[in-house]
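Take a careful look at the sequence and tokenised backbone pasted below. I need to know what the token row says about the fold.
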Amino acid sequence: MIVYQNITGAATTTVITKGGSVSGSINKILIANVNTSNAVTITVDLHDGTNTFTLIKEVDIPVKSSLVLEDNVRFDSAIYNLRITTAGTSPNISVIIS
């Protein structure tokens, strides 16, 4: 299972939906800032509809740079959504989850 998703604009986006067809049995999350002039601020969390468990909070990714998360990223996708929140001036990221 590999998920590819582009996210533009400041928003919270669910990249793996709880109870969906994509499993939370993941090894790596790559987040690339493809904006050519602005850094992007990223929060990655798990959300069960009521509670939020934060993996990383408000981490800045510089222009044309990437962040890789590969430690303790597996989760129970029957219970949690995996969400990414973007902030900054014209956020534009590519996400690859494997």
